[in-house]
Design a protein that fits this description.
Elements lengths: L1 H7 L8 E4 L24 E6 L7 H11 L3 E6 L16 H17 L3
Parallel strand pairs: 1-2, 2-3
Length: 113
């Protein structure tokens, strides 16, 4: 919702938007329709996304970020689903995934103008 508001009328104090598991499309229905408004967002954006997220097909999300250009950054969280849960076979636990997510967010925020 914040990205839609920012696309319509930029919020002066907002320096960037973070999407933690951006729901690009419904599960099993790949599309980029939900992201059309992002072309109007002119501030930095960070997408934190699990590689097993059924709501964001990897190739579609990467194509979207290519179109958005340098104002959009992406951090893939290996083996994580939309809720950032990981299977035990991944060799990682959810605390490790959250730690990776927080570190990526912190680094991105430190680089904001």
């Amino acid at each position: 919702m914040s990205s839609q508001a920012q696309a319509k009328a930029p919020l002066k104090e907002l320096r960037g938007l973070v999407f933690i598991g951006f729901p690009l499309h419904p599960a099993g229905k790949p599309s980029q329709d939900r992201a059309k408004h992002l072309a109007e967002v002119k501030i930095p954006m960070l997408f934190l996304q699990g590689t097993r997220d059924a709501l964001a097909e990897r190739s579609l999300l990467e194509a979207l970020l290519t179109r958005l250009g340098p104002r959009a950054s992406l951090c893939w969280l290996d083996e994580a689903d939309h809720s950032f849960h990981v299977a035990a076979r991944s060799g990682r636990n959810e605390a490790q995934v959250r730690s990776t997510l927080c570190a990526a967010l912190y680094t991105w925020m430190e680089g904001l103008p």
